[in-house]
Amino acid sequence: MKIKQLLDIGQKLYHWRPQKIINYRWMPIFLFRCFIARKEINTLEQHLTRTKLGKDFFELHTPIWFQLTRENFHIRSTAKERLNYMLNTWDFFEECLSEEARHNIYCDYSKSFKLWETKVNDKNLFLELNFVDGEIKEGCMTIRLLLDETVVYHMNFWIDSIDKANKKVSAYIGCHQGSKDGLDINRDLTKQLFGCRPKNFVFIALQELLSHLGITELYAVSSEGHYSNKFHGDKRKPKVSYNDFWTECGGTICTDKRFFSMPLHDKRKTMEEIPSKKRSTYRKRYELLDQVSEAIKNSCLNSKNLKGTITFDK
After folding, report:
1. How many CB atoms sit inside 10 A of residue 160's CB?
2. 202 neighbors 210 (Cβ within 8 angstroms)
3. pLDDT tens digits, residue range 233-279?
4. Closest CA to 100 of 86, 85, 111, 92
5. DSSP bridge pairs for 100
6. Which helix (H) or strand (E) holds 219?
7. Does pTM surpass 0.70?
8. DSSP states of 225-253
9. Cβ–Cβ contacts within 10 Å for residue 80, how many?
10. Is 74 left (phi over 0), alpha (psi -120 to 50) or beta?
11. Residue 265 main-chain phi, psi, to 5 deg
């Protein structure tokens, strides 16, 4: 890539102007990082620009340069690792979803890939799959729960590896995060979701989505593995414990303490395990989750190029 192109990209990323001396330092730092990752940058550009959709995506989302040139996704990630995450996520969804679905995810800010929706107090509550520029530090794709235009909760994830020979595809969750002013919304929605908290609801939906798409292994970044641990102080670090939530969801810490191994299916209580006074609520919750699972399955199947999951070589 030519230096003129890098300068243009740097100006877009850092809103750099010659008059503002304070921004002078960002351009040489950006150019230096690009020089260090020049091989990965060229590989990414060549891979994405094979198709029109890839070219549009490459030109539209300049923040992807942050993914490649800075320590994102998890602490101690390398440029080579980040490149693999980006390419594997792109290739995975290229095989799984139709071009129209991917265009809505990657290139149309007014649309997304809707997975499920319902009405709550005359408002639209829905799950969507989207690529969000503001969420690229912790993943290559985002699943979000929205109430009309308010993002209630979201999780970012990426595809780590695609091993068709051994029929294994692994995904990693980079974060879970709610809206800044979402406490009251969360309380109300928990009631509407029959006691299922929005963050649990989003995680279960993500499990269903990845299962339907053919993912065989699921992991999540731990509190220790979060990319923000590269910073000094607590200002940029998560305000909640990832470890507590992943453990609550059935995860177990890996040998590499940066990650948790997560189940691909939600473990439900039997009616015998539930106190009699709560059985009605749990029954309604499980019926709702079954409806969500079916809606996600249908959304995926209706948007597929091939069958219902990523296809493996025989």
Report:
1. 20
2. no
3. 565 666 678 999 999 999 999 999 999 999 999 999 999 999 999 99
4. 111
5. none
6. strand 217-221
7. yes
8. T-GGGGSSSSTTS-SS-HHHHHHHTT-EE
9. 12
10. beta
11. -135, 140
